[in-house]
Amino acid sequence: APEISCVSSVNQQVITPGDSSVFVNIPLATASDNCELEGIENNINSGGADASDEYSLGTTQVIFTASDTNGNSAVCTTEVVVVADSSVVAVCQDVLVEIGADGTAELSADSLDGGSFGGVGDLTFSVDGSTTLEFNCGDIGLETVTLLVEDDVDGVDSCVSNIEIEDNLAPVLDCESDFTAQLDSSGSASVSVSDLLVSASDNCGIDSTFLSETDFTCSDLEENSVTLTVLDESGNSASCISTVAIIDMEPPVISCPNDLTVEISFGDTVGFVNLPEANATDNCSVDSLHNDQNSGGADASGNYYLGVTEVVFLATDIAGNQAQCTTLIEVVEGSPDTLDYMIGGEVATIFGVNVNDVTMVMTGDVQSEEITDSNGFYSFEIPGSSDVTISPEKNENWLNGVSTLDLIKTQRHILNIESFDSPYLFIASDVNVDGVVSTLDLINTQQLILSIIDSISGNTSWRFIPESYDFDNPSNPLLEDFPEYKDYDDLSQNLADEDWVAVKTGDVTGAAGQSGTRELRGSYQLALNVDYGGGSGTVLSVEAGETKNIAGFQMEFHLQPEAMEYARLNLDQSRLPSFNSNNYSVDFERGIIRVIWYHPIGEYLTKEDKLFEINFGKSGPFLPDHVELKNRGELWYSEVYGKAGDGIYSIESVWESLPGEEGFTLYQNEPNPFSDHTVIPFFSTERSTGSLEVFDLEGRTVFQREIDVLKGENNYTLEYGNLPTGLLYYRLTINSKTETREMIRIR
After folding, report:
1. Structural domains in the chain?
2. Cis previous bond, 392, omega within 30
């Protein structure tokens, strides 16, 4: 078997007191064998001959075993003894101490132990020889102490501990739940801590006390929440809330106008008193200032009756406080004014035309009427102290100054092509007085010009506005209630310049009042062509006689109704835009046709452009004196207006074709068709003889007569029972000239 050798024992003390184990170095075990040694093992670790390792307190047996290759073995034992360190080790901890409600705190010394160990027996703890530490409010803060740790024998150690002494208790507080403060004369109020604090206490003493709001103004009237806060010396705080009511008991300071005596005109029982305004101030602000005479507030000016009137002014501030004062107004009657005074002036249009025959109506203390003279002047003599009103009136001759040119100008304004530059033009063009210049005004004016109506309901032909009146908005005067009369109160002087602006309804070109005077830029040629249709009537074609851009026209034709059965206008072939039945009127009984047309920009017409046709129910020949274009008709001139209405042109009518100019004209028989007889009309420019023939469809002559021809109108009655039925032709020959027409005979 092998031979093995090891140390018998190893003693080792732990390195630090309190340790329970220590690393022990054990000498190596040795072994030998007569053959071959396989190796050495131990029962502690895998180190073989080396059993050095960490060993716990107490005795540990380490067994070494040596083995050879033949399976033989031998053992050796080493005893390892680990002993403890009995020294005392002091371990401290930092602690927090809170001051109590009585302002003190107590701490045991062992509270500072942070895990001290070692020594023999029990450990005891003390600071400066005492096992208990005492603190008060003066110790608040960080304090460092030395903890002494001792065992039951003579083992001792110490360590240092930090003690934080704190006061974490908030003050105890009580405050008023409600408090009232009154604004002073400057509108200010203040609240102090003493006003709201009932009591406050703290374990270590109060450092400060303050309010969230101390100063108040008029804007704080009513209730306000105010917070009272108390801080102790450690920064702990407590708060309470009081309701602070801010009130205003200061009444306004009011000042009234001085007492006043006013003299009114003799005979009057009431007069207007212009009273200075009352005044009121307040420490906050005045909410209202009223008087007991009117709704004028601080201004009690108004009508007062003879005698003494007490006017009471009452001021109220925003808090409802009130103050009042009074003013005495005495109204006395003046002496009678025995003088007469004059009111006079001129009535004229904005175009400088004086308007005569205007009835100036005076009402009030004096009832009178005056008529403006040929220069538009008027004058009244009125007793002094009189109160009167003057209202001009004139409502006649609606078409005075009104023409199609006014329609052009008004339409250009409506379309914003050329706006009116005077408020009076707005008033003139608002013919239906609906407060706006519109197409309806064009229609009404158009009907006036055509004599479809002779006046416009709700309006007068003239309107008059005091020349002294200033329009609030001259570019839209129809929105305001402008005056058409003028009041004069307590007349005491001559008024010689009381002028009026005359506005002619419908006239925006200034033509009214000029007695027909007009500026012409020349003449415009109008071509008249006639086509005779026999039984179907005669057509008068009215055409442009020259090339020109025109914006409108107005024409009046006079007829001979006894020479025709009817007269009608036909616009089907007209070259003019926006031309319809609203643009003309036909009074056949009186033999008058009126035609107007207008356009805001104008229409470029060339020679022979057709304007319109007039159809006449006429079976006989047409003569030039049967219809006449009147240069000056019953109501207005026939005239043409240049482009954009920039000029007036008289009309020169020219007959370019007229039946009968070439010897004779054959017309359609009447009636047609016929059975027993028919009349064949024709017109001849001279007395002569002629031949009348009738042919059938085969060209055979079925009738022939030599007839006498008169100068002018001729009517031959054909009565021949042997004429065949159906379509026939009749031919008239006079002085080698021949004309042929068709006719139909029926059973």
Report:
1. 3-83 (2.60.40.10), 88-166 (2.60.40.10), 172-247 (2.60.40), 253-333 (2.60.40.10), 337-513 (2.60.40.10), 523-657 (2.60.40.680), 664-745 (2.60.40.1930)
2. no
